[in-house]
Amino acid sequence: MKIATYNINGINGRLEILLRWLKEAQPDVVCLQELKSENSKFPKTAIEEAGYQAIWHGQKSWNGVAILSKTEIQELRNDLPGEDEEFTHSRYLEAFTNGLVIGCIYLPNGNPYPGPKFDYKLRWFERLAEHAKDLVDRDLPVLLIGDYNVMPTELDTYKPEKYINNALFRPETREAYKALIDQGWTDAIRKLYPNERIYTFWDYLRDAYGRNAGLRLDHFLLNPKVAPKLVAAKVDKHVRGWKGASDHAPVWIELADGEIIQPKRKNKDHKNQESEDTGDKVASSDPKGLTELMKDLPESPIPAKVKPMKATLVDEPFDEPGWIYEIKWDGYRAVAIVNNGEASLISRNDLVFDQFGPINDLLDEWDLNVVLDGEIVALNDHGTADFGALQNWRNNKTAHLAFYVFDILWYNGKDLTELPLRIRREILDAVLPKEHDLIKTSPTFEVGGIEFFEAAKRMGLEGIIAKRADSVYTADARSREWLKIKAKRRQEVVIAGFTRNEGTGKYFSALAIGVHDQAGVLRYIGKVGTGFNAASQKELMEQFEPLITTESPFDIEPDVDEPSRFRPRRLGAKATWLKPELVCEVEFAEITSDGKVRQASFKGMRTDKNPKDVVLEIEADTEVMVKETELQADLEDLGQPVLKTPGSKPVKPERAHKTPGVLLTSNADTEEQKVDGHLIKFTHLNKLYWPEDKITKREMFNYYHQVAPFMVPYLKDRPMSLNRFPGGIHGESFYQKNVKDKAPDWAKTMPHTNDKGEEKDYLLGNDEATLLWMATLGCIEMNPWFSRAQSPDNPDYCVIDLDPDKQHFDQVIEAALEVKKVLDAIGIPGYPKTSGSTGMHIYIPLGAQYSYEQSQLFANIIVKLVHQQIPKFTTLERMIANRKGKMYLDFLQNRPGATIAGVYSLRPKPGATVSMPVSWDEVKPGLTMRDFTIHNAVGRLRETGDLFAGVLGKGIDLMQTLKQAQNLFS
C-alpha cells in the first residue's frame, strides 16, 4: 500500500499538477496540506474523476488539509482536542480508510522567532503530543502525516548554520518533535535512511531546487502497530521541478501487504471502465499518442526469433543521472511474439515455454501484433518471486503466476529497437492491456540506485537492473547500458556429476558443478550439497540416470572428497559423472582463492539455458562501466564513434563529481566491504572517536567514503604521512611514514631513502581503497606531500599557513585577506581553506615547475609583505617562545617531506571539524571552524562542488611573479 503526503500550496491553482502526479504515482492514500481553498471551492469533482474519494477542511488564505483515498473514507475528527484563540491556521484532519487511521497535519511555520507565532507553534505541538499519546498504543495502525514545519536533525537541512535561529530548526521545535518520537512513534524516512540527507522542500528563491538547497519538513510518524510493515519510502523530487509546482515535493511510503512489489494498476477513464471480471479481452485500436511516437519508423516485418538483450553484472549500485532502475526478477526470461491471433512464448535459449498455460492462453486471446521482452515469475504470498515455485508450477499450481514485461521490441509493423528505452516504455505502457494480473508491466523507478538497491535487499529481492534511459535495444548482446547488481550471489552452473558419502541413505550427497572458460573447457568449481529435499532429489535422479557416464567431463578430474579449511576431514565421497547437459542455479557466499564456491545452495534447474553458454559471471567495476557507457553516449551525441584497439579501453574524460551513499550500514562492530575491488575489514566500528560529540569510528569511515571522489585527486601519487589515533582523538597518537612490509599488496608505494640512508616505502594515496585503509589504522586526518612521486622535488603548490596563538579567528580572517591583497596585487590566484584546527591555509598553484627552495622563497616574500601590514598581531619568528603570543605566518612548510592536513580531511579536534575550502566571499568575520564538520561537509560539497579544483591546475609563472613581488616589497 502506497501512502503519500503533499503540501500542494494552493490546490486550485495547482490542480493540474496534482492530477498529473496522482496519475503517475498512483498512491492509495494522500494527505494534502496548504489547500488555500474554502470548503465550498474544493475541487471534489476533479478528484473523484481521478479515482479518489476525499474529505477536507479548508480555509481561504492560510491553510487547509485534505485526505484522498481510493477506498471509502470515514472522518473521525477535523481538529485536535483543545483550543487556541491565536493564529488558528494550523489544521488537523483524522480519518479511517484502507484499515488505517490517518492523521493529516499542517503545523505552522512559527516565524519570526522569537514571537507570538513561535509561541503558538509550541502550544499547538503540545496539543498534538497530548492527542498522539492516545493514539500511539492503539491496536489499529495509526499514521500521523503531513507538513510539521520541523527539521528534526542536521541531516534535514543542506546548511544547518543558516537556520540556527529559524523557527523550523530551533531547539525547542526539535525537542517537541523528539518528544513525539519518544512516545513510541517511528519516523519512517529516518528509519529507512538513518544517515542520509533527505529533502522534501526547496524554496523558490535563489534556485534552491537547482542547487538542491533543500529541507525536510514533511514527515510520517507510524505507531508500533504499523511500523513493522514499512518497506520503502521516496521523495518524488522531480515533481518540484515541474513548471508552476509547489515548493514541496510529494513524499510517499510503502507498507507491506499481499503484493508489496506490484505496480499499482492505473485507473481507466471512468466512462469506459469495465468490471474486473469482464476485462480479459482487449480492444485492438491504437492507444492515443502512439502515432506521434512511431511516425518516423520504417515498416518492418515481425521478427521470427529474438535473442534477448543481456545486462552486464557489476559489483555495486550507483547514483547517476540518466539511469532508471527495475527489479531483477528471479524467474525465466521470455520473449512473447503475438501476431494475427497466434502467440508464442520463447526462452532466451529458443525453447518454447508451453508449460505456463494461463499466460499462453491469455496471449492467444490478444488482438495485438507485438513482440515483448520480460520475465516469467511465480509470486509467493508476500508478492516476491519464488524460483522454486516457478519450477514446480506445472505440478503444484498454488503460486501466483505472472509475466512481467519490461520492454517492447516491435509493434504493428514497426521495429522499436532503435528508439530510446524511455520512449519504448511509453509505448509499452500505452499498448499493454491492464485487465489481467497474469501479464503486467514491470515497474521502473527513477530514484537513486543506491537507495533502490538497499530497498531491494530489505525486501529479499534478487537484485536490481540499472538501464540508461536513452539506451537502444541490442539483441543478443551483453550491454554496458544495462547493468545488473545482485543482492544475492547467484550463478548458473553445469551439473557434471553427483557424489554419495559413505553410509548416506540419500539419493546423492552433493552435485559436482562447473562452468566453461573462454576456450569452452568445462572447469570444476566445487560442490553444492544443500537446497534439496527427498522429493527434489528423486526428481533430479530421474534426470541424471540417462546421462551417467564413466568419464569425467571436466578438463582435469577433480578430487570430490577434498578436505578444506571449512571441512578438514574426508567423508568418503564417491563421484558418479554425468554428461554435461543439465544446468542449475546456485546461491553461494563467496568464490575462494582457488576458484571454488563456498556455502553453495541449490536453487533450481535452468531448462532455459544452454550448457555451452554457462560461464563464470565476474562482476565488472561499476564506476568503469558507468563512465565508459556515458563516454559512448557523449561521443554518439557528437556523431563520433568510440574507436578502440584490441584490448584497449576508450579514453575516459573527467566527469562531474558524484557523492556515493553510506558504506557501512549495519550495527555490527566489524564489517567487511569491497572497495575499488579490494576487500577491507573495518573493525571497532562502534568505538567513539570523538567522545564529546558521540561520533563513532563507523561515521569516520562513512565520511571518507562519501568525500573520496572529491578528496582522492589531492592524494593521488602523493606520499602520505600517517598520523595515527587508534584510540580516538584523546588517545595516544603517533606518526608513521614507512609502510614497508605493512601495506596491503594492492597498495601503491614509493621507495625513498631518507637523510640517514634508511630505505623506506611511503604509501601513495592513489584511490579510495587506500584512503579507507589509512582510516582503518586510525588516521583521522590525511597528510599528503606537496609533491607527487613522479616529481618529488617539485611541489604542485605553495602554501601560506596562518598559525594563530591566542588570536580570535576573526584576526586569522584579517590576515588571510591581507594575503589576498598581496596575491591580487601581483596578479596570481590563491585558494583558501580552513585548517580544521585554529588557522587557515592559502594554496598557490605551481604546476610542479619549480623546486621547494623556490617555493619557500616565494612564500617568504608574501608573508613579509603581510607582516608589514599587520605587525601588531603577526610574527615571522619560528620559535614559539619568541612569538610572544602572536600569529605565526608560516612559510617554512614549503620544504621536502613536510605535510599539513589535506583538503577535506577530518581533524582530531572536538566537533569533528573538517579542513574545508572556502570561497573568498566567505572569508569574512563570523566564519568559524565549526562551520564545517563531519555532519555537514558532504552536504556542502553537493551544493558548492570542489572549490579547490584550481590548485591542481596550471601553475603560475613564478619567475615573473617574483620580480613583481620584489618590486612591491622594495
Q: Strand portion, in percent?
A: 25-35%
Class derived from helix and strand content: alpha+beta
The largest sheet has its strands arranged as 3-4-2-1-14-13
The low-pLDDT segments are 258-288, 637-659
Mean pLDDT: 85
Structure description:
About 40% of the residues are buried. Strand 17 (about 330-340) and strand 18 form a beta hairpin. The protein has five domains: about 1-255, Deoxyribonuclease I, Chain A; about 300-310 and about 320-485, DNA ligase/mRNA capping enzyme (D-amino Acid Aminotransferase, Chain A, domain 1); about 495-610, Beta Barrel (OB fold (Dihydrolipoamide Acetyltransferase, E2P)), CATH 2.40.50; about 670-785, DNA primase, PRIM domain (Alpha-Beta Complex); about 795-930 and about 945-970, Alpha-Beta Plaits, CATH 3.30.70.3300. Mean pLDDT is about 85; it is low at about 260-290 and about 635-660. With about 950 residues, it is of the alpha+beta class. Strands 3-4-2-1-14-13 form a six-stranded mixed beta sheet. It has a six-stranded mixed beta sheet with strand order 5-6-7-8-12-9. The protein contains 19 helices and 47 strands. The protein is globular and about 95 Å long. It starts with a strand and ends with a helix. Helix content is about 20%, strand content about 25%.
